[in-house]
Amino acid sequence: MEEMKTTVADEKELQEEAAAEVKPEKAEKKKSKKAEAELSALRKELEAQTEKCKEYEDRYLRMMAEYDNFRKRSAKEKEGVYAEAYSDCIANLLPILDNLERAGKSDHLDGVKKGLEMTSKAFSEALSKMGVTEIETATFDPNLHNAVMHIEDESFGESEIVEVFQKGYAKGDKVIRYAMVKVAN
Question: Do the beta carbons of residue 180 and residue 168 sit within 8 Å?
Fold first, then answer.
């Protein structure tokens, strides 16, 4: 009987050992499944955060591009506004110069004539200081001159300016006022 007790006891031990081995395996499987679930959840959260980062980066890059375009457009508009304002101002002053030059050509009182000539000279110098130059009137150029009269005369060359009715002025490449001229041939 003792042998049987030993066998039963041994069998119980073996069963307990087997059960003990099964429990950790089940526990490890449960832990493994739980870890996999947590890992899967973390991966999903990481993907979501990565997508958000990409979205924010895209928004940031677009905003920077818009700002750069705005800055360039503003600088360009500022230059254009300044040039237009400058040109408009000079265009309003030019008739004064024209009148002074006409008065200087008359033969009335010498003192008035001298004063007008001095005023005209000072005005011309002021325009020169602002970078405004008189348009040359040798040969007709439709980009610089406004032909108001045309004559046929063999003594003049092709597209030669015969008479200047009103001087033209420019600042750099921008024409402020076209020269009003009479053109031959």
Answer: yes
Q: What is the pTM (predicted TM-score) of this model?
A: 0.50
Alpha helices in 106-171 (DSSP H): 110-129
Q: Which residue type occupies 61?
A: L
Rounded Cα distance between 98 and 11, Å, is: 129
Mean pLDDT of the chain: 84
Give the Cα separation of 45 and 42 in Å (integer).
Answer: 5
* Type of residue at 171: K
Q: Using CB atoms within 10 A of its CB, is residue 129 exposed (0-12), middle (13-18) or buried (19+)?
A: exposed
Collapsing DSSP states into helix, strand and coil, what is residue 152? coil
**Dihedral of the alpha carbons of 75, 76, 80, 81, in degrees to the nearest 10:** -40
Beta bridge partners of 146: 180
Q: Tokens 């008359």 correspond to what residue?
A: 106
DSSP string covering 26-66:
HHHHHHHHHHHHHHHHHHHHHHHHHHHHHHHHHHHHHHHHH
For 6-42, the pLDDT digits (tens) are 566 666 666 666 555 555 566 677 778 888 889 999 9
